[in-house]
Every structure is written in C-alpha cells, then in structure tokens.
Amino acid sequence: TTSDQVKTGTEKSLDTSYLLNGSLKSWLNMNGQGTIAINDSFNIASITDNGTGSYGATVSNAMSNTYYVAAGEHSSNGSFSANYRVLPSTTTVMVCYTQAGNAMEDAQTVTVLQGGDLA
Question: Cα(94)–Cα(115) distance, rounded to whole angstroms?
Fold first, then answer.
C-alpha cells in the first residue's frame, strides 16, 4: 500500500515499479526567444541556446541510455508546431525547431519531456 493512503476498508496496493517506470523523468517549459529562460521544469539543471531554433537542456540526473522517449513542442505567436526533432544523449536533450520551408526559428515557448530509465 502507499504510505499516504487513507484506510477505507478496501485497501489497495500499487506496484512501485509501475510508478517508477511509468513516470516522467524530466520535463521543461522554457522561453526560447531573446534571453532564454526556464519557466518551470523537473530534473533540468540548465539550458543552452545553440543558435536560431536550437536549444539544449542538461538533466540533473542522467538517463541510463539513449533509448528513452523524448517529445517536444513549441509555440510562436500563439500557434503550435510539431516540426521539431529531439537529439538525445544520456545527460542532455537537444531540441531543434523548424518552420515551413525548413527555416529555423526561435520559439516563444519550448516544451520537452523524457520518459525512460534513470542511470
């Protein structure tokens, strides 16, 4: 049973491996225009601006390998775009965004999340 469970007479249990494996290992919401800044995050140590439309995020606790799941999205001028790619390593997630015609663009808001095993 979980430590914060209220006893109701129909006590239930939850496999802790499900909680650990099914939880996000990091997430990031950042400003990608001008001076980049973290708006909010979990397990993110720092961010870098790698040039127009390209950002890096260093995780506080490394992933065990590069076979984890990473996803991201960005918005510019209030609209969202799915033209992005995530180039993972065990300690950083590099996110590159493009617009129509393959032109790179700095995004107002950048979001990235990771799921997988921590080292």
Answer: 15
